[in-house]
Amino acid sequence: MESSPPLPLANGEPMYGGYSRFEIELEFVQSLANPYYLNHLASQKLLSQPSFIAYLAYLQYWTKPPYLKYLTYPGPTLKHLELLQQERFRQDIMSPDLVQRLVEDEMKAAVEWHKE
Asked: Record's Pfam families (predicted)?
């Protein structure tokens, strides 16, 4: 049975530790913008678990309205969510060199964005 995305802050939504499913998934998907966190997930072997890979596929709903507007850093968040769909990237993110390159790319993108 496939789970559907949560409604953004719907009234009557069940709470988990005081947070809605929407809030929990928003915080998690935004954490994917951090290359060091991606490396941590890989080091914990989560990126090789079929159930976790399926969860990453499920999170693709964040790429579409109305969910997209809730992302604080949509560029790196969506870029990494897309890359995480690829088995090769899930393996390669273990490399400190790749992590550093992603960090540098994001810093360059932020500088360029502020120039405009």
From this structure: Med31
| Residue pLDDT, tens place only, 51-88 | 999 999 999 999 999 999 999 989 999 999 999 999 99
Neighbours of 84 (CB within 10 A): 21
- Looking at residue 4, the DSSP 8-state letter turns out to be P
Residues 6+ apart with CB under 8 A from 97: none
Q: What does the alpha-carbon distance between residue 83 and residue 56 come to, in Å, rounded to a whole number?
A: 10
Phi, psi of 8 (to 5 degrees): -60, 110
Do residues 38 and 81 make contact, with C-beta atoms less than 8 angstroms apart?
A: no
CA 28/CA 22 separation, integer angstroms: 10
> Which two three-digit tokens encode residue 10?
């719907």
